[in-house]
Fold this protein.
Amino acid sequence: MEPILSKEEIADLLAAIRTGQVSTDSIDEGGPGGPIPKPVQDVDIFQVYVHDEDKGGMRIPNLDIILDTFTRNFGTTLTNQLQRTFSVHREEISTTSFQNSILDLKNQGAIGIYSTDPLKYGCLFHLDALLAFTLLEIMLGSAIISESHALARNLTTIEINILKNMMQGICHDLQKAFRPVITLKPKLLKVENNFRLVNIVDAETEVLMTSFSFMIAGKQAGSMRLIIPYLTLEPLREKFKEIVTVAQASYTWGKVLARETLEMEATVIARSGLLEMSIRQILDMKEGDIIELGYDPDQPLTIVVEDKPKFLAVPGERNGRKAFHVTGLYSERNGRQPGPENTRVQEPVADTTG
């Protein structure tokens, strides 16, 4: 019985036919002997469509925006956690089979297996040997590293357990990055150094793969690789399409900043007098001295917001407490301006609580 193509294989076959990579002509006109069959050419549909690196990011639109957000968040997390300045850079998104993605790791470093509830199949994060040993040196108290080295051996069980804490932090940053698309609940299930034991999907399943390069103090510190099955993200294709563009995002952030600025606290002072004194006059001051403010009680107070005069007001009382009534905006014409830049002593301010 002939094997039945899956839905994904049928879609790949149709795409290959549309692009002309698979011919629909099966016979050629011959002579008196009748039609001459064309020689059969083996076509690996998976290779034709899936292994085209230029289409890696096209399979899931705007996936690069999510991964760039994760890159920034994870770089900040490492910097804060390990007290080293990490610079993380994301590389191109490519596609391959799950088996090839595992073989390409060459059984070196450490690989974390993550669940991605409520999505299926999960994902993998791989730390190459250089990054794994660099992180271990820092976490074990090494001084500032001048040059990191990847040891020619597998990680031990103890080293794997030490790396788990750092790899656990990936969950939080991954959750934050995917928040515009879905409320993801990633969880680190296991960290392995024997990649033959890693199996989250079938060997020929298509996966999306991207690498992240790490720098510390301008020196190469290794790389990390994300491997996630296409079937994990495929249900979210439409939601990925709805992600805002960069221009829209910057406009949205402007509104957010403006809204949050309105909630910031500011210091407001009702100032009845301001005078200038020299350092000698201040040093000569003693108990019992009387200092004239030159304040006219018939003139309004100056309301100062964060050291900047903004309003004019009339002092008074309300509910047994000192208060002021704003009468207008402060201007250079109706407000008293300070003189030369000398040392100033300000009268104790009134309680402005109304």
In short: The mean pLDDT is 78. The two ends are 88 Å apart (CA to CA). The chain has two domains: 49-250, 268-284+295-346.
